[in-house]
Amino acid sequence: MSSLLTPLHLQSPCTPSDPLMYPMGLTPASPVNAVRRGLLVAAGGLLASGLASAAPRVPPRAESPPVGMDPVAMSSGLAARWAAAMHRDMGWQARWQALGSLAVLAQLEAGDLPMGVFLATPRADALDRAGLIHDRHTLAYTDLLLVGPKEDVAGLRGAGSLVDALRQVLAAHAAGAAEWDAPAAGDALADWVTKWSPGLPRTNRPPVSAPLSALPYRLVTRAAWSGRAADRQARIWAESSPDQAVALQVARSFRSRHPGAGLLVKWLQAPLAMKQVRAGAPGWRAAGR
Predict the structure, then answer these.
(1) Domains 67-143+245-286 and 144-244 share a fold
(2) What pLDDT does 210 receive?
(3) pLDDT along the chain (289 residues), means of 10
(4) Quick one: pLDDT at residue 262?
(5) 218 close to 148: Cβ distance less than 8 angstroms
(6) Which residues sit opposite 238 in a β-bridge?
(7) Which of 18, 65, 174, 184 fits 261 for a cystine, CB–CB 3.0-4.6 Å?
């Protein structure tokens, strides 16, 4: 009776012989209870391991993909600015591979590269329509320039546009009066020369009259012209109109996949990458401006 009046916190703990706590004579040290404790521990371990395996694993961060890059983006300093900003922002080391735009597109078509940065050409349009490249976006623009000797050997002073001036140079070259340095077959600018000069010879040919200026006329981008030391013997004779600017584009290959390619394409369109175009890459203007 006295135990009923004693507060619970003052009552003595149960003894091993207490029939309420340990019926049928079982004690903590009995074999049956030891087995029970072992089963409980094992069940707890299985539950913990099950919860751990059910938790989603954080995938490892993708590595920087190899990128075919037109040399004009590299010589103008734009690729270097992108590389520095990407390393600060994402911790990636740039894996640029200097390739002409048509070579970049050929490797994207074959699946030899997962992505590339190139000057827009009709070849890129054809691959896009065929579904061999995708995720294609314009990153920047650069103007076209017709440069040549300071002497007006091709008679360009009356030319009203870049197209007229280019045709005049090609005609003068065909007549042996001026030298012309045609874009290489793998150069994206060759498509522009072909488009603007139907019926005119567009390749280099030996002059029929001499002497000629040692400096030929040539078509270049403003980014390429701005990215090298000024040529004191050369001058700009004509510039493209705003609707004739050349686009610098990025795209991914359909036949080659890289876990970081999609992320890098998005990064190149993001404000930080566009800031690199606006802030200090000569000869470029960011897409959307």
Answers:
(1) yes
(2) 41
(3) 47 49 50 54 50 39 87 93 95 94 95 96 93 97 94 86 92 91 81 78 47 76 78 84 91 94 96 90 82
(4) 94
(5) yes
(6) 146
(7) 65
Whole-structure pTM value: 0.72
Options 3.40.190.10, 3.50.50.60, 3.40.50.1820, 1.10.760.10; which CATH number does 67-143+245-286 get? Answer: 3.40.190.10
In this structure, which topology does domain 144-244 adopt according to CATH?
Answer: D-Maltodextrin-Binding Protein; domain 2 (3.40.190)
